[in-house]
Amino acid sequence: MRKMKRLLAVLLLAVLTVFVATGCEKTASQKEEEAMENIRAMNLATIENLAQNQIAPVFTQFTYDQFAAVKEQGGTVFGPLFDNDIGTRWKAFNDAHGIAKTANVDEVMRDGYEYTARIILTGEDDVQEALTITFDEEGTPYKSILQAYSDDSKETLGSKIATAGGNTVTGLLVVFCVLVLLCLIIYCFKFLHREPTPPTKREAAPAPAAPAPKAAAAAPAAVTAPENDPALIAVIAAAIAAAEDKPVEGFVVRKIKRISNTKRR
Asked: Is 172 within the bounds of a domain?
């Protein structure tokens, strides 16, 4: 029984040892990646040394005219292909700021499979420009860029605040001017599509029509009063009463009938 327990313990210890060894062992891809990182780090150090000790000193130890003379004689300074590129940048800096008094490597970094080194050149007028040189994976330079450079670390807090304040005021003025311009444009819209109205002319008041001539007085027509007209009855009754010398109330006229006075033949 004891022998069985010892055997199981030995087997368990062996299994644990195998698992630990397997877990600690790195895969082939991990080893390859680490090897590549080590190579890139070495390349980065090599390029930094190249930029610091071989490229940057050229700008202070030689002039552009000497560089151009070497090229005209068929010689090379940095490389047969890179000399044309760096020569263009060097001439531009020399024409603008004179001979470089200092050339210091500011930073060296890796970007993918490329490496860049930035060299700060200071001209005779104390103006600084940044010359960025790009290297391939083998450490050979093949292109460069010359840009304006300003060292923010030398700027005081007061100057930084003044710069920020100036930028803020400029931004507010720009926004205000744009708002005023928009208001003017919107105000002018009502004049763009407005149709011109013709001037109103006061029309002369029409002359009053001449009154129509009065019709000639018509000849009085024979008016035939109705036989039972109350007014006529009253008049006749009064006439009869006067002729009979009797009061009007004594009799009543009930009907009046016209008698034709034409004579019979």
From this structure: yes
Separation of alpha carbons 66 and 79, rounded Å: 16
Asked which of 166, 187, 208 is the last residue of a domain, the reply is 187
Query: Is the pTM higher than 0.90?
Result: no
- Per 3-state DSSP, the chain is made up of helix, strand and coil in percentages (nearest 5) of 50, 15, 35
**Residue that terminates a domain, selected from 167, 187, 207:** 187
pLDDT digits (tens, 9 = 90+) for 195-253: 666 655 555 455 555 555 444 444 443 344 455 677 777 777 788 777 777 777 766 76
Our count of domains for the chain comes to 3
The answer for 104, left when phi > 0, alpha when psi is -120 to 50, beta otherwise, is beta
Phi, psi of 16 (to 5 degrees): -65, -35
Determine if residue 74 is left, alpha or beta; phi over 0 gives left, psi from -120 to 50 gives alpha, anything else beta.
left
Domain residues for 46? 21-154
- Which residues are paired to 124 by β-bridges? none
SS3 185: helix
Tokens encoding 227: 């036989």
Find all residues with CB under 8 Å of 90, minimum gap 6, and list them. 59, 64, 67
DSSP 150: -
Dihedrals phi, psi of 92, to nearest 5 degrees:
-60, -40
Side-chain half-sphere CA neighbours of 111 within 13 A: 8
Only one residue has tokens 């008016």, namely: 223
